[in-house]
Amino acid sequence: MTTHVLGDTSVLLGRSMRHITRSLDTIITVTVMPIAFLLLFRYVFGGAIQTGTDNYVNYLMPGILLIAIASGISYTGFRLFNDMRSGIFERFHSMPIARSAALWGHVLTSLVSNGISVAVILLAGLVIGFRSSAGVLAWLAVVGILALFTLALTWIAVIAGLSASTVDGASAFSYPIVFLPFVSSAFVPTGTMPGPVRAFAEHQPVTAIVDTIRALLNRQPAGDDIWAALAWCAGITLVAYLAATLVYRRKIG
Fold this sequence. Notes:
Subcellular location: Cell membrane; Membrane
Order of helices and strands: HHHHHHHHHHHH
Family: Belongs to the ABC-2 integral membrane protein family.
Largest sheet: none
Transmembrane segments: 24-45, 57-81, 102-130, 136-160, 172-190, 226-248
Number of strands: 0
Radius of gyration: 19 Å
Number of helices: 12
GO cellular component, one term: ATP-binding cassette (ABC) transporter complex
Oligomer: single chain
Structural class: mainly alpha
Shape: globular
Low-confidence stretches: none
Protein name: Transport permease protein
């Protein structure tokens, strides 16, 4: 049974990835905006922002990566909405294919495509001065946290893609998520913010994730931030997964 599910999921993953390779503008679009933000904050705002670090690009990079992922998951909702509208799910269910494979194909596609976008942005960061003294284990931890963050947001995208009544609605949910890094420690220390804004910034998931990634990349102790980051990612993933599977069963029931 497990082999059957894995085989079906890999086939549908290949299908979704072929759609992306035939339309590379999705990856280009996802990477262009974060790179534009990276350049904007580095060369326009960077001189006026005091973060207590010598290399502002290093300070910026974690938040830029999260913005890229938040932008990229909107395409998961878009692709899922199109599949639902085209009736492809009904055709899949008339075939001997595991029902969960259709959803997991989209989820794994999101992980792969966002991983490519993150790699491109890291290369762009290296060009303009990003440097990291992190070792192999720290980099693996960063990759793991980014993957968990992607997985959490992807299941939210699945809910939107299944529930939306229009194509715009299937991707519009990502706008407030993209905005969250701007009200966090991604670009400036939270201590510089007014009281209510600071309270929100310090207790929302992006700040814990950004601070953890920044510490790992700079070979500094992550402290309690890493546990908060993992708890946020795991909690969001669990709740979104349960909600997405419930919506999916209702849609195909």
